[in-house]
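User: Um, what's this?
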Amino acid sequence: MPLSAVVIQNYRSVRNLWLPVEQLSVFVGANGVGKTNLYNALALLRRAADGTITRAIAEEGGLESVLWAGPRSDRKPVRLVLRARFDELEYAVKAGLPHSYEVEIGLRQPTEAAFQLEPLVKAERLIVRHGRRDAVMMERRGPLVTLRNDRGERESHQFAVLPSETALASFRDGARYPELEAVRRELLEWRLYHDFRTDASSPIRRPCHAITTPTLSADGRDLAAVLATLSVIRGDTVDLDAAIDDAFPGARLDAGEDGSWCRMSLAFPDMPRAFAVHELSDGTLKYLCLLGALMGYRLPPLIALNEPEASLHPSLLAPLARLIAAAAGHTRIWIVTHSEELARHLHEETGKQARRVVKSSGATGIEGLKLSGEYADEDE
């Protein structure tokens, strides 16, 4: 179920964007144009899958802080709308795989039992495409959720879900509602990496439990286990060793088990001993985290990176671009950056031109992006 597009409406500086998601999507722009809002919209969609999207909005400052900040119409309430559209390849259509999931968030109405400024789920919809026909498998309007089960029968559930919860996360019977379960699992498997703490007390600098770990966690705390999984469980570090040598010529990474713990160290050719993880520089450790995210035993269906160049030495940008290009052959990657140099290296490695994020009249937009969700240069 590869993600094919994301629709964002009324989120901070984003008024209305239909963003196609390619195998590698790179967005570059200056500070303050709203690049991070594109990344955060993906994060909110993922939070819809685990049922915590309203809490995430509250943590961002509440709905009034999150909603579109520009001029609004007084005729109807403004709602945050997020939609994930999935690949429309022929096999997916024939199999009746989910086509799109949409969620709307708004403020409390006088008749609703909720806190005064609490963000609430107002509507949800899951659509499956069968040939040329769309079938609504789940629709939520306020307190009423209507589902189509595995036998094609419609079910109505009144007040089964609190307005602070999503129906996507609440109905977890995969046998009865397979399409709903498919979307929920797909979104939960996304990995979004905003930043990796590298201070002295960071969990990344400590040993982690020796548990087979195919995918790096969002905060990188299981980095040693991810790299040790490649070495001990898969028993193949050829690509990993090559990536280390590309970034740090002559260096050697050692990641393995030590009793019930996983540890790692990095040996440099000009130093008499290897450096344990707690001794590595912030930039080196940050790069190892990116390496773990992009070279794990099992890559997630979508990897999103927000300003991955932060705290990296410029000499690491070309190796990082090669790392991203290799990973993009196995999964979809979404990158938000303000580094023109990283965007240039990615273009050299993949031929993909970065999309420039701009702001016009207070609204975030993408140069060349049409309302239909297509880029003008693709027509040419």
Q: What stands out?
A: The chain has two domains: 3-190+355-379, 192-350.
